[in-house]
Design a protein that fits this description.
It is an enzyme of class 3 (hydrolase). It is a single chain. Helices cover about 35% and strands about 5% of the residues. It is built from 4 helices and 2 strands; from the N terminus they run αααββα.
Length: about 110
């Protein structure tokens, strides 16, 4: 959803680095390849920004964090959470905020 929001704001589609989050967002509660939550990734991005895929490519494994703040191309200032199971709140978030991240317990 963050890439979509970036596109809506700047008109350019840019791929953000998943590996940056896998390696570096442990400080916010994520667990690398063992998983995590979008809000923890967003907390990391608020504090640090995020690199693009081309600067911090995906390796499909936990690695040492090599984040380079000078390569960060975007950040966010906040995010909105909707109550679990509240379809109306989800619709309003899409209408008022734009693209959303969802988690499905399957």
């Amino acid at each position: 959803s963050l890439e979509s929001m970036y596109f809506l704001k700047y008109g350019t589609l840019k791929s953000m680095s998943e590996q940056n989050l896998v390696d570096c967002s442990w400080c916010c509660g994520n667990q690398g390849c063992n998983g995590g939550w979008p809000y923890q990734a967003y907390d990391y991005i608020i504090k640090n920004g995020i690199e693009g895929e081309s600067d911090y490519p995906y390796t499909a494994q936990d690695d040492t964090c090599t984040y380079d703040a000078s390569q960060s191309f975007t950040s966010i200032s906040s995010y909105v959470e909707t109550p679990s199971g509240d379809e109306i709140a989800l619709q309003e978030a899409v209408q008022n905020e734009g693209p959303v991240s969802v988690c499905i317990d399957a």
